[in-house]
Amino acid sequence: MSGPVTTHDAPVDDEHDPPERPCVERHEAREVDLGGMRVRRTLPKRQRRTVGAWCFADHFGPSAPDAPMQVGPHPHIGLQTVTWLLEGEVLHHDSLGTEQLIRPGQLNLMTAGNGIAHAEETPASAASVQHGVQLWVAQPEATRHGAPAFEHHAELPTVDAGGWGATVLVGALGDVRSAARTDTPLVGVALSCGAAVEGTLPAEPTHEHALVVMSGAVRLGDEVVRPGEIAYLGLGRDELALGADGPTEALLLGGEPFPDELAMWWNFVGRDRDELRRAREDWESGHERFGEVSSVLDRVPAPPHP
């Protein structure tokens, strides 16, 4: 489960419900280095492991001109990767034989299932600045042992949500739905504005929601959410009143609380440590479950299992 629900999360009588409820939790990102690129990691946190099935959120860049993305072949199990760019280009290779360039406004969604490997790099011809997010979605029991898959969505549905430009990456915002695969009830929306805005977005009360800001700042009532933190909004909201005082880019993540306890280590999402240990051994031994990736980058060795 994603954690206990506070009294602020439950729906309450409208007579006593303030028009703009505060964040339930706020957590600072942890900065990590990924292939020479600065990354702010907002999920998972010790206090907040998941938001719906979202279990990992990396905000990378904007990169320095001399710091292209170079992440060599590495494995995944039990998750989907969701890649969304604000600037730059990334070339994806995987063990299904996929070679796919992604640009801003497009979505790459890779399903690991029982096992997949991939590599990501900045093409030599691309602009040097790289800025975007990579998210992981935990797969439920029904699909996590299944076959791997890959989707590229060159176009995604957009909505004008009270002045916010909203791009629906996965799931639905109101009546507008993305064609991207979802294995659990889920929503992911990229929000942007070029100037001051006050807008209201529809929300599903059975979903918990969170905000991640990539640039600018988002106001939720009297609270301001800035880059480098995640604001967990809880359950029970049927709309979200969000404001900004200038150009802003943010993500709204949500979904039904995930029913299983997750075990996460390195690039693997499972249910217990033995499962993660077997996946590590299979990667290190070159087991066929992960296949081969055509890439000029070096294969990434697994760290020692704790």
Care to describe what's here?
It holds the Pfam family Pirin. Its cofactor is Fe cation. Belongs to the pirin family. This protein is mainly beta. The protein contains one helix and 25 strands. It has a single domain, classed as Jelly Rolls (Sandwich). 4% of the residues lie in helices and 46% in strands. Strands 1, 13, 14, 15, 16, 18, 21 and 23 form an eight-stranded antiparallel sheet that branches. It has a seven-stranded antiparallel sheet with strand order 2-3-4-11-6-9-12, with no helix packed on it. Strands 5-10-7-8 form a four-stranded antiparallel sheet, with no helix packed on it. It is globular and about 55 Å long. The protein starts with 24 loop residues before the first strand and ends in a 21-residue tail after the last helix. The N terminus is likely disordered.
Which helices and strands appear, and what pairs or packs with what?
Blueprint: E1 25-28, E2 30-34, E3 37-43, E4 54-60, E5 70-76, E6 79-87, E7 90-94, E8 99-102, E9 107-111, E10 116-121, E11 131-138, E12 149-153, E13 158-161, E14 164-173, E15 176-177, E16 186-193, E17 197-202, E18 208-215, E19 218-220, E20 223-225, E21 229-234, E22 239-244, E23 248-255, E24 263-265, E25 268-270, H1 273-285
Antiparallel strand pairs: 1-21, 2-3, 3-4, 4-11, 5-10, 6-9, 6-11, 7-8, 7-10, 9-12, 13-14, 14-15, 14-16, 16-23, 17-22, 18-21, 18-23, 19-20, 24-25
